[in-house]
Amino acid sequence: MAKQRSPFDARVTRYVRSDQPYSCGRTGDPCQHGPGPDGRCSEPDNRCIPVPSEGRQRRNMFLRVLFLTFGLALIIISGDWSVSLDPGARSSAHSQLQCSRCHDPELSSTLTFMSRGLLGIGDSHSSGQCLECHDMGENAVNPHSVSPERWEKVLADGSRTLGGIASIPCARCHVEHRFESPASGLNDARCQACHQKRFPSFHKGHPEFGDEYGVPTRAIQFDHFSHANRHFMEKPDLAPDRCDQCHTLGSDGNRMRVKPFSMSCARCHEDSIGGRGPAGKDLGFEVLAIPDIDTATLSEAGMELGDWPFNGTEFPESWSRRWIRHAMDTDPSLTELSGIELWSLEGQSEAVLNSASHLAWGYKEALLDAAEGNLESLINRMVPAAAGSLTHDETAQLAALLPRSLLMEASDAWFPHLSEEVALHRAGEDLPGKDTAPVAQPGEGDPQVEDEEVDLLDDDLLDGDLLDADLLDEDLLDENGVDAAPSTEEASSPSSINPARWANAGGWYRVDSSIRYRPVQHADSFLRAWATLEARTGDQDPDSAQVFAQIFSEDSPGACASCHIGLQHGGDQVRWEPDSHRAEPFPRFTHFAHGPHILSNSDISCLGCHEPATNKDLPNDWKAVTRNQCIECHGHPVEDRCTTCHEYHAGPRIDVIGITDLDILRSPEDR
pTM for the full model? Predict the structure, then answer.
C-alpha cells in the first residue's frame, strides 16, 4: 500500500518550502502554482515577481562567507595589509566618479566593508543616488517610469496587469562592477523576469503588430497618390523622381523628416500662398477696422460723434472686437449691440443709441491712446487675457513691425480732429458745430439760398476774370483741337492704386476704414504667432474662435488650412511641422531608427516596408508595417533582442549635466 503524501509535500507545494530556489513574491495571497526553478512566475497574467527563497539566501550567504574567508586567508598569507578590494570594472560613464558618490562613504574602510559583508548589512545604495544625475521624472522607479494614471489608460482593456509591482530599483537592471561587461543594462532575461509570456524569438512567436503601427497621424494634409495620379500627371516636370527629394533623415538618425517647404512644396504652391496663383487670394487680414455707424440718427438724438468715416465695416469682429472690448473694459455697450445693424439705427431705442454712442467714443479713445502710446500696449489690447504675460519676442512676432506712420495716416483719414474731439468729450463739453444746422444732403434746401436769392446773371459771374485769356489757353486744346491727354503724374496718382495689390510683397496697408496685413510667404511669422496663440487659449476667450477662424478658414490669405491639420482651436498641442506625430508623446514602449536601415549597403528601399493604401478612411495613405516585413532580416542575419525595438524607460528623461563653477570669471576676493 502506497503511503499517502502530506499536503505539504515538496511535489505538491514546492514554492513554499525553503529548499526551493524561489518563492512567490505576493505576500498574503500567493500564486496558486508558484514560480518555476528559473525564477519566473507560472501564472499567465504575470501577477508577481518571485523572490529568492530562504534556502537560496542561506546558500548565497554561505558562498559569500566562504569567498570572504578565502580572501582573508590570502591577505594574511601575503602579509600585505594595504591590499585594496576591487569590486570590478565600472562603465565608462561612471569611471571618474568616486565610490562615495553612489555608496556609503564608510565602505572605504576595509574593516567596515568586510564586517558588513559578514553580517549581511549591505550598502545604503538606492535609486535616489542614481537620480541625482539621471533625471527620469517623478515616476522614475515606477514600472517603465510611467505614472499610475497613465498605466490605468494603458491597461484599460484588462488584458494585462502590473502584477502588484509598485516600484523597480535601478540596480535591478543596471549592474556595475561586472568584469566581463560593465553596466550591461537590459537583456532578454531581465525583461522576462516580469514579462512571463515567453516565445523563442522575434521571428518565432512574437505577437503581430497593431493595425496602425508605422502610420501615425499626420500633422499636414497630404496624399501621395492624388499627387502622383493627378497633379504630377498634369505637370510631369514637377514630379519628384525619388523619395529623398522630399524626405531626409532627421538629425537624431531615427525619424524621417520632410524637407523644408522651399525644397519640397514651393515649386507648386508658392504662388497660391502669395496670392499670385489660381486661388487669387490677394487681400490681407482685417486687423483693425472702424464700423459704419448711423451718425445722422445719433445726431438727431443729440449724440454728436464729430468726425466719422462713412465707408466703415460691419459690426466689429475678431481682432477689432477684442481691441475695443479691452478699451471699453466693463462697459456693456458692445454686448448690448450684438445683432444690431450699426449703419441703420433709425427707430432704435434710446438705450441702443446710447450704447452705439459709447461704442463710437470707445473707438476714438482707443485709437488716440494707441497713437500716443506704444506698439506693445496696442498689441496687448489685442491679445486674449487667457494668454497671460508675453515675452518681448512673442509680442514682436504678433506686431509684425506695424508702423506708427500707418496708424497716424489712418487716424487722420478717419478722424481729422481726433485729439480735439476726444479732449472735449472727456471734459463733457459740446463738440464744435453741435448746435448748428446739419449739413444739407443733395436735393435739400441750402440755408443760404433760402435767405438770399442769387442772381445767376450777376455781373460777377461774367466778370473779366472769369473770361480771362487763360481760360482759352492753347494748352487746353492741342493743335488739332483735341483735349490734351492727362499727365502721367495724374494717371498714376496714389488714389488710383489698389493698396492690397501694392502690398504684393506682404506687410501692412490700409483700405478705407480698415488696417490690414497681407502674408505672402510660407510660415509667415505674424500668422504663425497669432494662430498658435489663439489655438492655445481655446475657449478661454470670447473672441478667440473668431480670430482663429479668420486665420484658418479655407479662403484665408496664406492658405494655412489647406495643408496644416495639426492645429486645432482649443487643442492641447500645436503642431506646425509636417512630420507625423503621436497622439501622446509618452509612454513610448517601442522605437524604430530609420538610419541603420536606409544608410546600409543593402537593397532596402522605402517601398520594401511602406506599402500604398487604397482605403481613404485610414489616417495615412500607407498601410501599417507588419511583423513579416521585419522578420525578413531580424532573427536571421540581424539580431532580434528585446531592446532592439523596445524601450524600458517609456517616460520622459533629462540628463543632468555636471556644471563646473567658473571661478576664473570672479574677482579674487569673491572666490
Answer: 0.65
